[in-house]
Amino acid sequence: MTKADDLFVRLSGVAALMVPGLALWVRSGYSWGAVVLLLCSLATAGVWLRRRPGRDAWLLFGSIVAMGTVWALDFDPAQGSWSNLDRPAKYLLALPCLLYVLAYPPRVRWLWAGIAVGACGAGLIGMYQALVLHLPRANGFTNAIQYGGLSLLLGLMCSVALLVLWDRWKPWQRAGWAVGILLGLEGSLLSESRGGWVVLPMALLFCVWLQGRSGQPRKAIIGAVLVVVGAVGLMAFKANEVRLRVDEARQEITQYESRGDAASSVGQRLAHWGLAWRMGLDRPLTGWGRYGYEAEKQRRVAAGEAHPIVLQFSHAHNELLDIFAKRGIPGVVVLLVFYGVPLVLFWPTRRRVFPGAAGVLDAEGLCLRMIGVLLPVSYMGFGTTQVFLGHNSGTMFYLFMGMLVLAILQGRERLRLQTPGQAAAALS
């Protein structure tokens, strides 16, 4: 490896730390690592353009192109605004970053550091905002729902890293991961984002199942119990707030079902979901488009066919229903592909986590794959009550965490094919 190659591998590592590490506790922190990758990709274009990324990389590349194309359909020159190109531009700029990071994969230790720092930073900024600034809901530097979801996801990633690689960590490192888990959960709790609380048990059970079927059932069960105990312990400090939020949700559902009252958090979501479903059924092949969606909402409200509350938001508060109303069934298919490709690429099959003839568990590979699977699984959960990909934080975290995990996995595989001595030195 030349000095230039070593430099760009190190810069990839810096980006792998920054993407999760700065995501929530630094203003626009989710973009800093992406900027590093973009600048490096421009500087090394002559290298990665000559390399073949491989089938897995092309699948991820294609899913990014497809999703970016769906967002690009929102652009309408007749509306006189170029701001709608902001979303598809992120997908376009992610493509050279993907090819660069595959050519110069970072060492995995940078990602571990980034996840730990990100979870701790998320919890600490949440505590500062709640206890010092006395904000009603912690939000980091995004909105409370996005912040709460990503803080929870970082906490879950810490739990995976701690449990799957338990034997690797020294006692002080285990303690650090445990702090990261608690602070990640605390950030989500302080956001009072109920969508995250729904995702937690689903994601936790999913992680337990994946870890158990991969040869670590005892660690999986013990870890899940400890995470639940930690979450319950943290909730005890905000028991009244949690109880109020749960009671509010029940009351709002009852009020909507009995009187059609949509002037509440849950009520307006139910109103949006029903309207988006009906609009999608009216144009299942093409959808209404972004501007057509807004115009049709106004028409239906004026005609008494929809509650006026739906005019206050530009999306349906549900990822699938929103894209169904705006882009029809083709848009839904693209979104499912965008979720499904990482699931396929990272799924921890027996052949992947027990490589080679010896059949020894590759714990680090399993950990990376579980973190990769957590991304789409969590986003599908968050997307039931929020258009998570409609916000910069959600889009950037998904795009760049996915490509980093894939690059690290492919880099480890290339090293494994080298001589045993070289691979051991590089992976240490």
TrEMBL record:
Bilayer-spanning residue ranges: 7-26, 32-49, 56-73, 88-104, 111-132, 144-165, 172-190, 219-237, 328-347, 388-409
InterPro entries: O-antigen_ligase-rel_domated (IPR007016), WaaL-like (IPR051533)
Assigned keywords, A-Z: Glycosyltransferase, Ligase, Membrane, Transferase, Transmembrane, Transmembrane helix
Protein's cellular compartments: Membrane
Domain (O-antigen ligase-related) ranges: 183-336
Molecular function, one GO term: ligase activity
Cellular-component GO terms for this entry: membrane
Keyword NAD on entry: no
EC number(s) given by UniProt: 2.4.1.-
Membrane topology, as annotated: Multi-pass membrane protein
Enzymatic class: transferase
The keyword Signal appears for this protein: no
PANTHER family the UniProt entry points to: TEICHURONIC ACID BIOSYNTHESIS PROTEIN TUAE
Protein name listed in UniProt: O-antigen ligase
UniProt organism field: Acidovorax delafieldii (Pseudomonas delafieldii)
